[in-house]
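Researcher: Here's a chain I'd like modeled. Treat it as a single chain, no partners, no ligands.
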Amino acid sequence: MNECIFPPVLEEGRQLPFYLTCAGGWDHQERMYRREGYGDYQWIQVLQGKGYLWAGGKEFTLTAGQGMLLFPDEGHHYYALQEPWEVRWIAFNGKHAGELLAAMHFTETQVLNLSDPEVILTKLAQIINLLQSKHPMRLYTCSSLVYQILLDLFTYSSVSELRTKQQNYEQLSPGLHYIEDHYNEVITLSMLAEKLGISQQYTCQLFQMTLGMRPFEYITNYRLSKAKELLMQEASMEIKEIARRTGYEHPSYFIKVFKQAEGMTPTAFRSMYMHTDRRWGR
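Model: Modeled as a single isolated chain. Structure tokens:
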């Protein structure tokens, strides 16, 4: 493939969180030097060969299974170190692009490793095919695909040789499954560590890296989600019984934890949502 497609960007499209400005691919990427950078965000993914990137005063090398996420208006240059250096890319922007990328922890130009490159390459190919079609909604579908690609980067990519979020979830999953099956029982850190086959200290680190919270924060979060379900599904069930079924021996402590998390007592929560359901005829 040697192609570069620039779709028309309508004013209506510029109001979207993400919109596509360019897409394409080269069987051999030529040297690119941009002193002032490029006006949009870019994702450039390597299929084969090896390349060099300089951006933001940092140097990177890229091979198959990696890609570069470039931020707008930042000087950069890149070129092949091992030919052919085959790449596919998209350029994009959006009304809320910066803040949404930041929410995914993408705040600067970086090289990313992909645990499953084909997931993103498939969507890049879909974008090219759409742009070559006459489908009337192709620009909106491309916008959706850009967002999906960024979510894939969040899920399947890592900086340097660090593990991806997907790999962290896979390691953490026995502990998460145990919590889901035993949330109404006593769960200790040592139990979770044993299920995961790692130390208690690393168990805490793994929860923090993967979920952004400590193990007991996650347990509390999960228990309260189940408590909410019981409050709604079992309208006559007493609060002390809901507390017991969600792993709280003392109803007063359950009420305290619930109020801290939701800003209201379990009884007030039930009353508010049950009233809403009757109001709307459900």
